[in-house]
Design brief:
With about 475 residues, the chain is of the alpha/beta class. It contains 16 helices and 25 strands. It folds into 2 domains: about 1-250 and about 455-480, 3-Layer(aba) Sandwich (Aldehyde Dehydrogenase, Chain A, domain 1); about 255-445, Aldehyde Dehydrogenase, Chain A, domain 2. The strands form 7 sheets. It has a 7-stranded mixed beta sheet with strand order 15-18-19-14-13-21-22, sandwiched between helices. A 6-stranded mixed beta sheet has the order 10-9-8-11-12-24, with helices on both faces. Strands 1-5-4 form a 3-stranded mixed beta sheet, with helices on one face. Strand 11, helix 9 (about 230-240) and strand 12 form a beta-alpha-beta unit. Helix 3 (about 80-90) crosses helix 4 (about 95-120) and helix 10 (about 265-275) crosses helix 11 (about 290-305). The protein binds nicotinamide-adenine-dinucleotide. Nicotinamide-adenine-dinucleotide binds near residues 176 and 251.
């Protein structure tokens, strides 16, 4: 059985206690590794190491910090296949997706923030009265980075890289469901030239070590990506300490298709937006709003494309949809499909558990589903399912489309499909979301702000937004006359 160890103060080490938890391969439903369940002592050791390393790391010239991040990117790239295999085993996602999206994005995150370390700048404001202000941007100290299971190392590196680029030291916690790639990553730190203590990786559950990281008085800030309910717990527990928080939370994103769109392109986009990574992406377009004039044609095209998606072994190059992350999540998704039927919806395709032949017979697969006939306000259309389920709803005009899109407590992302650019710009302005795509989905420029409104989060990451989050601005005013 493979073991997944913590990384504290520059060494791979077992937990201070003797507790381990099982790690499953979703595609087979079997335990394949055990990871350390970190204790409060492990956290104290990691925090002490991170505090000890802080002054030197913060004083390291930006160009040297950038060099380390670039070296780390090189080491990940050299091992693309190992990381992709590990990510696919841990998550159930197709190996091809891990190889072509997840791992390249880890390297891109590291390189991007290597550049940001050198290019980040702060403001100065000259006053006519004979004074000048300059703003120092200083690192926060020890910061906590907590990430979810759907894009495990992709999202963890999206936090660790800017935290380091800005001069902080880090306590990182990957999801307990997908700890393997964070462990493999930690084994590269010293080879990349990261001094001991600069990044520490602790494994364990959210309620256990996750909550302890959030509560630790010496951890200055928490960058969290995960579910809205967990975000709320973190916000409540840090409120009294006024800890700096970045919360990237859930979504129930509208995909708005107008009758004047390029239908083939919109169909391809809707399938990608609905079902990439088994629908387990916060940005997935799970509410598909289609204008009445093309509704029947669009539904037909969609269902035939979704039926053609291959569900099965993530190692198979022909597979489009791998396994869901856990048995509990499979039950949750199937439960929502049952709820959709109770709420009067019709499942046009998919929705049943799939049992592939061979090694994946006991894995957690579900056929991608399209539902129609539900009201916008019902639970199926309001709650985040986070699986391969898309709900179709018709609308008549632009005002109704915007109203339906905004009838949600979430506000992470939206896509708009139309050839009328003025309409696209109007809808983009009125839709309540942190990210809007026009005639595309999930095209990401790493310089742009990423985050949501309403219950999809608080604050922004991405580009210099992350550098701002991981630094404290201090204004210095100098009188010179
Ligand atoms: P989750 O909230 O259950 O867990 C996320 C992480 O938080 C895990 O590492 C978990 O161990 C930890 N955690 C759980 N409870 C904690 C606590 N009390 N204190 C500290 N840490 C705790 O989420 P998940 O199920 O892993 O991920 C799926 C969710 O993440 C979905 O809602 C999805 O929309 C969201 N997500 C959002 C974004 C975004 O950028 N907005 C990106 C990816 C995923």
């Amino acid at each position: 059985m493979e073991k997944i160890y913590n990384y504290i103060d520059g060494t791979v080490q077992s937990t201070g206690g003797s507790d381990w938890f099982d790690v499953y391969e979703p595609a087979t439903g079997k335990v394949y590794a055990q990871a350390a369940e970190s204790s409060p002592d492990d956290l104290d050791a990691a925090v002490e190491a991170a505090r000890g390393a802080f002054d030197d790391w913060a004083a390291t010239p930006a160009a040297d910090r950038a060099r380390v991040l670039n070296r780390l990117a090189d080491l990940v790239e050299e091992r693309t296949e190992d990381f992709a295999e590990a990510e696919s085993i841990d998550t159930g996602k197709p190996l091809s997706l891990a190889r072509n999206v997840d791992v390249p994005r880890v390297a891109a995150n590291l390189r991007f923030y290597a550049g940001a370390a050198e290019h980040f700048a702060s403001e100065s404001h000259a006053m006519e009265s004979g004074a000048i202000n300059y703003t120092l941007r200083q690192p926060l100290g020890v910061v906590g980075c907590i990430s979810p299971w759907n894009l495990p190392l992709y999202l963890l590196s999206w936090k660790i890289a800017p935290a380091l680029a800005a001069g902080n030291t880090v306590i990182a916690k990957p999801s307990e469901l997908t700890p393997m790639t964070a462990y493999l990553f930690s084994r590269l730190f010293s080879r990349a030239g990261l001094p001991p203590g600069v990044v520490n990786v602790l494994h364990g559950t959210g309620a256990g070590i996750g909550q302890q990281i959030v509560d630790h008085p010496a951890i200055a800030a928490i960058s969290f990506t995960g579910g809205t309910r967990t975000g709320e717990t973190i916000a409540r527990s840090t409120a009294g300490r006024f800890k700096k928080l970045s919360l990237e939370l859930g979504g129930k994103n509208p995909n708005i298709v107008f009758a004047d769109c390029d239908v083939e392109r919109a169909l391809d986009g809707a399938v990608r937006a609905g079902f990439t990574n088994q629908g387990e992406i916060c940005l997935c377009g799970s509410r598909l709003l289609v204008q009445s004039g093309i509704y029947d044609e669009f539904r037909e095209g969609l269902v035939s494309r979704v039926r053609a998606l291959q569900v099965g072994d993530p190692n198979d190059a022909a597979t489009d949809q791998g396994a869901l992350i856990s048995e509990a999540h499979l039950e949750k998704v199937l439960g929502y499909l049952g709820l959709a039927r109770e709420e009067g919806g019709e499942i046009l395709c998919g929705g049943e558990q799939v049992r592939p032949d061979g090694r994946c017979a006991d894995g957690w697969f579900v056929a991608p589903a399209v539902i129609e006939g539900l009201s916008a306000g019902c639970r199926t259309n309001q709650e985040e399912i986070f699986g391969p389920v898309v709900s179709l709803m018709p609308f008549d005009d632009e005002d109704e489309a915007v109203a339906l899109a905004n009838q949600s407590r979430f506000g992470l992302a939206a896509s708009i499909w139309s050839r009328d650019i003025e309409r696209c710009l109007r809808v983009a302005k009125h839709v309540e979301a942190g990210l809007v795509w026009v005639n595309t989905w999930m095209v990401r420029d790493l310089r742009t702000p990423m985050g949501g409104v309403k219950q999809s989060g608080m604050g922004r990451e991405g580009g210099f937004e992350s550098m701002r989050f991981f630094t404290e601005p201090k204004n210095v005013c100098v009188r010179y006359d």
